[in-house]
Amino acid sequence: MSNRPFPDADPPVRPEDLRQAGTWLVQHGLADARPTPLLATRLMVRRRARLAGHVMLAALIMAAALAQAYGMFWSHPPMPLLVLAASTVGFLLVRLLLDRWVRRVDRRAAATLSRRAAHPLQPGWRALLGRPYATFAAASFAGAVVLALSALIVRDPAVWYAVAILLVGLFGVGIGAALQLYDLLVRPVVAEDEVSLTADVIMRIEDARELTTPTVLWALPVVLLFGSAPEWWNAAALVFMLLGLVTCVVIQARTPSSLTAARQAMSVQ
Amino acid sequence: MIVIDAASPVPPFEQLRTQLARQIQDRMLTVGSRLPTIRHLAADLGLAVNTVGRAYRELEEAGLIETRGRAGSFVSAAGQEGRERARQAAADYAAVIASVGIDTGEAIRIVQAALTPGEAASVSA
After folding, report:
1. Cβ–Cβ gap B46/A110 under 8 Å
2. Would you kindly state where each structural domain of chain A is located, as residue ranges?
């Protein structure tokens, strides 16, 4: 991999970023490769984007909880619901902007390379995400929506209001994840040799796997409806969360590591 | 993997065409495999869309790939059939060589001359 710095990269590469890139290579079984400014820049921008994404998600959950609390104590439910819908749109926009930022940094880093490497056959969602993760993500989303809708059986306006908030949040998170997954699949490759091409695939696989880990889908129903819904619903929400957690652990334990998955994705070409 | 070196004296479209053609001939890219779209591969390799388009066009003219409208470009079965025909012709030729008693070295020279049009006449003369 090239060891040249990126004078116009945004933001610049720090020694700390290079050190972290070295650690990342060792952790991913690529200890023989040297950490390069290309890799350090790409990892650093992803770390920051991921952190910002987590903060945004936390803010969305808090906004949903505040909207529900507001509706419980004051009798003007449409207003907080609108604010929450606007927050969800804002969350999606910020996610899109974060993706655009990552792409821009990737593009600038790529523009400095004199050699460019790419796949003759583009790895698809099966290679990057894999059926177990895709099925798990779809099932978790469907489960969360069914759980939310099942609470409508209760003839209580407060519960219905919470369900409306929950559905807005769930669909916001779902659309955001789908958009990010699409972006992962179509984002141009940034590589100059086999090692950086493997690193590129590993980053995509890890991003895709993290995207499909349904922590928010587990958290939102509990945050919004736990307590106000009947006992059977509370029990169902806990079972949904525990079952999801166990499935997630089993999938993570039984699926190949990101390096193995990356090598498999590249070998089928 | 496809690698394009901007510092190479070989034009980028030729680097791309050669590498794809070799991978198809070596069967690393199997018949029916869907190649990336021109726009996507151009973005991956930092090339102009026309450059990738020219490489694809030449591969298509050589019968190595085929474009199926909006579905994209695929590795063609025609190239595979061509190689099978060449193998069959080589086997027939080897049988003729054995039957008339020509040695292997001379048989190879005859083939080389046949593959180089200018020399074919001198060998037959």
Report:
1. yes
2. 15-267
